[in-house]
Structures are given as structure tokens and as C-alpha cells.
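>> Question from a student workshop board

For tomorrow's exercise we were told to take the sequence and the ligand below, predict the bound structure, and bring the output to class. My setup keeps failing. Could a helper post the expected result so I can at least see what it should look like? The ligand is FE3-S4 cluster.
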Amino acid sequence: MAGEQIIEEKKQGQALLTDAKKENSKKVFIESYGCQMNLNDSEIVASILSDEGYNTTILLEEADLVLVNTCSIREKAEQTIRKRLEKYQAVKKINPKMKVGVMGCMAERLKEKFLEEEQIVDLVVGPDAYRDLPNLIEEVVSGREAVNVLLSKEETYADISPVRLNSNGVSAFVSITRGCDNMCTFCVVPFTRGRERSRDPKSILREIQELKDKNYKEITLLGQNVDSYLWYGGGLKKDFDKATAEAQKNAVDFAKLLDQCATAFPNMRFRFSTSNPQDMSLDVINSMAKHKNICKYIHLPVQSGSSSVLERMNRKHTREEYLELISNIRKLIPECSISQDMIAGFCGETEEEHQETLSLMEEVKYDFGFMFAYSERPGTPAHKRMKDDVPQEIKKRRLTEIIQLQQKHGLYRMQQFVGKTVEVLIEGNSKKSDQHWMGRNSQNAVVVFPKTGTEKIGDFVNTKINNCTSATLIGERI
Ligand code: SAH
Ligand code: F3S
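>> Workshop helper replied:
Here is what the output should look like for this input. Compare the format with yours to find the bug.
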């Protein structure tokens, strides 16, 4: 999709006034950058702070506390945040009592250095330390700087009900795992988010029930690598072998979790993100096929179409194995849409290897894509052991070729819906006109159609698709 490749760097929205306690008198302005996980973490933080007497505000100028949830995935994401800190500096001149905290991946990566490098920052808190925020804030209010970047082997925030921020009231995120053990050589996430942990399925189902009670209609189960979900009573995934036979027998993997969610909430729609090809099992695909309310859409990042590049990336599967997975998905769920993440110009990437990426794309014809030029991240295995040796212009040219091909395939996939009837969950007004609704079909394609006066936000309606662009289906209610 055009422009989608920059989603990570884009601000994902400011906090709106929420259902936090009304008697709260202090105001926190929370801003999230990066992935959906960060957005969900900000909601957890809003919940922790609500108990401490903070309401969220959308006005930076009136905030007692500003928290920015940061992203380290590429250098550009970090630069965006540093620019944003300059803006806070300007506001602090008008509102000198305002305190500024950084959370998330950049906080974890830079630790105390953040305080030295950015004068405006009073507080640094890593992704596993949000429960400590009340203490850290107390320190800061008493005029001291505060840092907690400890990573945890257990923390899943399972008992905290997130305060939904910037929500359309229809779809919500529910985290199911934290951290990542995969160690893809280019990726900073295992260092900033720590070891992989799964959340108790009971607490997941409880949170979904709460959302259902508030009339939410669609849940996206979140994790860096959802297919790796494994609950056997708590503990790290890598210690599963040491668990008792009983615990192993009753373990819940991702396929079972999907099954439990879809069965317990037949009128809710379920999505999940992100899948990792090496961990996606046939059981997961079968669970998806079995339940109408699990959306037929898989975000399946591949990063490269070349087995040699995949090996350098430590992706643990070959091009052929990936294509076999795609073929199984198509066999079991013919209507499934599939999207990719691609990295152009990884260390040592030859022209031939780049061509293999383009040919893989030709074979799969992805519905959507999120595409990036390789950005070396300090401390990662690629940074330590490999050379970022593809010249910038070549990276850019290869990225453009990948994006252009994706646009062609995106349009092709959208055209396949023309003439068909699809079920849409209405999310709100179309961006271009309040006479039209906007929603998504099961395959995650955006559908726009004229209002008829008989439907409302949160309804599932059938629309016939008459036309499309590369990013939108245009339909009418039937
Ligand atoms: N857990 C997901 C990816 C999380 S990061 C997975 O299984 O792949 C989101 C995307 O950012 C990645 O898929 C990758 O395409 C991109 N990315 C990560 N590190 C990057 C880097 N150093 N340079 C460029 N893109 C990167
Ligand atoms: Fe990063 Fe690979 Fe995990 S891309 S988030 S290390 S699956």
C-alpha cells in the first residue's frame, strides 16, 4: 500500500480524554510512536496512572506529565522522537512545571544516556518497568531524575485493564506475548523488549470479555511473534521442557488460544499480529479456517526472498519453506489475504539476491506490504558481525522497486473483490466524506460506502464492491 512503509515512524495518535476516573486532577499527555504493541503499552500506562490520580489530556500545554512511548526499530524512528523532544522543550518554556518521561524501546536502548543527551528528559522507563511509574514520578516531582530499565522474565501486565486511548470504540488490541527470542540479526527488539513471555489465557479471555461489555466488536491479539505463544502456567518459553508432564499436557499454544477466543466470543471478530513464518503451524491455519470470526488475513513478514539473505538475517527458514507455508495457507484458506515486511539492502545483498525478493513477490502477490531500507541498529548481531555495505542509493533504488511492485500487486488483489459481496465492520466516517462509512472486510481491506441511514458504527454489514483503488474498495450496501 502506498505510504504504508513509513507507518513505524509515524505518530500513532495522541491520547484522548478517556474513561479514566473523573475525580483525577493531574494531567498526563501520552504520545505513542512505533508498533501497535507500543500503543497498547501506552493504554496500560494510562491505566496505571489513572490509579495515581492522572487523567489523560490532548493538550500538551496543560500537561503536568508528558510521556512519549518510543520506537528504536530504525534510525529514522529515533530521529523523529528526538525532534519531538525539541517541541516539548518549547512548551516547557510556557509550562515550566511540566515533567517529561520517555518510555519504550528507545528508553531501554539508551538508558541513563538519555538524560545526558536530552536535557528535557526527567524520567526514563523501559517496557517492563511501567508498574514502577508511580515511584519514578514521585522522584521526578521531588526534583530528581529517575530511571528504571530493568527487563523482566515474568511481566505481562496480565492483571491491568488498559484505558483505551484514541479508540474508535469498535476495535481494540489485546497483548498476548511480550518480548522476542528470535534474534533476527538486524533487529533491536530482543534487546529492548527482552525475553519472550506468554500471558495467562484466562486473563486474555477476561480482557476480551471486558471489551465485549463495552461493545467492542474486533480484537487484535498482539505479540512480536504470536505463533510462538505458549502458556503452561507461566515462565519463559525456553523453559517449557523443564515443566511438569501435567503442565505440558495442559499447555495452550497459539492455535488453541485462537480456538478458545473464537469459541468463547462468536460475535467478536479476531485478528492477530505478527506471525513469524518459522513458528506458524498448520494448527494455526486450521484454527483460522475453522472459525468464521477469525479474520482471513495473515501478516507474514519475510524480509527477503533470498535464502542466503534469510540465513544472514537468522530467519530460520528458506525461501522454499516460506513458499510451502504460503501454499498451505492458500490450500486451507483460499480467500486469505497475506501481507509482508521487506528489508531492502541488508548487509551483503547482491543484485541477484534482490531479484529473488522481487520474484518471491511475483509468486505470492501480497495484498499489502510494509517495506523498509535496512537501517543498522547499534548492538545487534548484524552491527557487530556484518558490514552495512550496500550503498544508500542502491538501497533506495531497490526499495523503490519493491514498493512499486507491491503497489501493482495490491491493486491486483483489490480488483479481485470487484463484483463480490463482502462483510464490513463499520469503524467510522470515511476520511474524505461524512456521507460515507469506512470499515474493513475480513481480509483487512478498507471498504468505503455511502451511508443509508439504517446502519451505525460497530455494525457488520454486507456491501457489494463496485470499484477500487490500490488502497480502498468502493462499495454499496446490499
Ligand atoms: N516480529 C516481527 C517484526 C517486528 S519489527 C517479525 O516477525 O518479523 C517490524 C519490521 O521492521 C520487521 O518485520 C522488519 O521488516 C523491519 N525492521 C526491523 N529491524 C529493521 C532494521 N534494522 N532496518 C530496517 N527494517 C527493520
Ligand atoms: Fe525482531 Fe525477528 Fe523478533 S524481526 S521482533 S527479532 S521475530
